[in-house]
Every structure is written in structure tokens, then in C-alpha cells.
Design a protein that fits this description.
alpha+beta; 143 residues
Length: 143
């Protein structure tokens, strides 16, 4: 399972929810948006939606993957000091304010699991041990 590969320990209840024995992926053809991927394991269907931050505003999900994108600049890298609570000042740049609002929406959607995927060069190495102590599980998938 990916979580154990990443060294992420989760409760037994969440493990049961996230555990699958096989890799069966079937695109849901009748989905009007066609961005829903369904997994069927032993009669249990799990739907995974690929969506923009704007389209999930106001929703709650079991898990969220926030994937860094680049529009002029890498959005998560631009705000990493705010996400890590290393910078508490109000941003003045309009684009940074917009990114901050979007990332806030994304970070407040999941009920159980939040994953942030970003370019390694954008995460300050000096913060890794400090945030692992705070309960973050930081995984370098390039190694």
C-alpha cells in the first residue's frame, strides 16, 4: 500500500477505508464530467474525483491531494512559508492573495487525509525536521 511505502501510519479504521488488495481502475463512462475514476474492490465502489479547487468549494471529502500547479509561478512554493506558519504577515501581491484563498479552500476540504504534492526545490530543507515533529509526514518521492 502506498501509505506504508511512504512511512505513513494511520488508524486501523482509516486503514480499512484506504486498503485495497488489487489495482483495478475503471473510468466511469457515464459520468457527465468524465473526471471520476472508480475503483471496485470486492463489491465496494470508491469514486475518486479529479477537480479544481474552485469546483470543490463548500464540499467535504475523505481525502484531498493538493497538487502544485504553475501559473506564472508555482503556487504552493509561493506560499510555503504561509502554509508552514513561518510567515504570518498579510501578503500584498494580488496573485499571492488569490493563491492563498485557493489553497485555504483546498486545505480545509479533507476529513481524514491531506496530501500536498509540490516540487522538492520549493520546500525549505531546514523546515523538514521541525514539521515532522509537528506531525507532518514529509516524503521525498524522488528517492
Amino acid at each position: 500500500m502506498l501509505l506504508s511505502y511512504l512511512g505513513i501510519n494511520i488508524s486501523n479504521r482509516n486503514h480499512i477505508f484506504l486498503s485495497f488488495e488489487r489495482n483495478l481502475i475503471n473510468e466511469t463512462l457515464d459520468s457527465p464530467t468524465r473526471n471520476i475514476i472508480s475503483f471496485e474492490i470486492e463489491g465496494r465502489v470508491i469514486e475518486n474525483q479529479i477537480a479544481t479547487i474552485h469546483s470543490v468549494k463548500g464540499e467535504t471529502h475523505a481525502a484531498t491531494l493538493l497538487l502544485e500547479t504553475k501559473y506564472h509561478t508555482n503556487d504552493i512554493t509561493t506560499l510555503i512559508d504561509y502554509i508552514l506558519l513561518e510567515n504570518l504577515t498579510q501578503p500584498t501581491e494580488a496573485r499571492k492573495k488569490k493563491f492563498m484563498k485557493q489553497i485555504y479552500v483546498a486545505l480545509t476540504r479533507p476529513k481524514y487525509l491531506l496530501c500536498i504534492a509540490m516540487n522538492k526545490s520549493g520546500f525549505p530543507a531546514e523546515h523538514i525536521s521541525k514539521h515532522e515533529l509537528a506531525g507532518w509526514n514529509i516524503c521525498d518521492l524522488t528517492q
